[in-house]
Amino acid sequence: MTAFNDLMAFQRETSALAQIAGRLGWDQETMMPRGAAAQRAEEMAAIEAVLHARRSDPRVADWLDQAAPQDEAGKAQLREIRRAYERTVKVPADLATAIARVTSAAQGKWAQARADEDVSAFLPVLEEVVGLKRQEGEALAQGGDVYDAMVEDYEPYTTGAQIAAIFDEMRPRLVALRAAVLARPQPAELTGHFDERIQMQLTEKLAVAFGYDLNNGRVDKAVHPFSSGSGLDVRITTRTSEADPFNCLYSTIHEVGHAAYEQGIDRDYLLTPLGQGVSMGVHESQSRIYENQLGRSRAFAGWLFGQMKDAFGDFGIADADAFYATVNRVHNGYIRTEADEVQYNLHIMLRFDLERALMAGDLQVSDLEAAWNDRFKADFGYAVDKPSNGCLQDVHWSVGLFGYFPTYSLGNVYAGCLYQALQKAVPELEAQLAEGDTSQATGWLRETVQRHGGLYAPRDIIRQASGIEPGPGPLLDYLEQKFGALYGL
Known about the structure:
Elements lengths: L1 H29 L6 H19 L2 H9 L5 H17 L4 H24 L2 H23 L4 H6 L8 H23 L13 H14 L9 E3 L5 E4 L2 E6 L6 H20 L15 H15 L3 H15 L7 H8 L13 H20 L7 H13 L25 H20 L3 H6 L4 H10 L9 H9 L6 H14 L3
Parallel strand pairs: 1-3
Antiparallel strand pairs: 2-3
Helix pairs in contact: 1-2, 1-3, 2-5, 5-6, 8-14, 8-20, 9-10, 10-11, 11-16, 12-13, 14-15, 14-16, 16-19, 16-20
């Protein structure tokens, strides 16, 4: 066990340094002075150089050869360390450092270009990012599919072709449901002025209601909501709009799903490969089931209606039924994070196809805006009105997260499977949610999914928790049943 113990001690130090890098990223999104961007890029590059050196240290290979743990967790630790090591040694250190430096700088340039509605100001640095990430993908793929190599970072043991097959199965039913719903009268929009300070107060109440431990976390504001960290320090952000409190409230519930996953992992796995979510698809399954199947349910919406009346007074919605319809209103829109459940996955399919083409070299960065706008018009039936509603709306490509987008829809698919099992496991679910009590629902998710961290492969943990082979059927059935009832289909 000496080799195994030495390996795990080394790994915990590496993981601690990675957490520090993550905290730098959190600070950059929330509190860093705008003028510090160039220095932060150098700081991120420096720590990435240290991390790459540790992750590719030849001693790791020696320890892996010698270590022989007997228990399931130890074997899983080796599996994940070996997978990460074999990927890391394929990427030259100078390339990893360059990616860290450029993506840190690109993030600030994206934010400014988005604010200025100026795609041309962002495309040069995006071209750098795409070029470097393609080099990385080629190094990882070693003659195989570049995009598959990138997906592996976020959804292990899954290929672009497998994702495309799932999307091909989902698209016809989603398009048909959207057409049927949009042909029906729509519920009223939420209108009025909602004090942003009160939104943040209600946000904290919602975070606690969904099990977020503020002793080991905090809630801040950012341009693009996100969750950061693991173990004993897991932070979330949200955003506010005086005209749209739902953006704030449901972004918060979504990010709490991510954070609860990290906070719920067995503490024995702290600062090890098993001490974090096993994949972004499984991660997204938690945030989406928190936000949608629980947070947008008729039962919980009724409770939230009362909370909003207490916080804001009369805000123009007559009763809990009307509020539930407004919360789940299917509507035309440009922004992925604000999309309703019916149309959300269509936004992901657009990004999946575009980034696959970028990585294959079939789409040039200079043509991205036109390709995005053409595809959006074809998929949604109306034109993009400004860049911040189009190809500048998401932060992901600026920070090099190619292969990440499809995990959002995989998360929805996994959430559909989990929700089907959750309803059977917690027969009193609706009554509890009507009281604002999510404890049994989130407790079931913690027990069946979250506590295991990276112990099992992504599809395996969903299969074990739900009792079925993961697939889009349960999600599509749920959407058709829910929105069929809401819109009288």
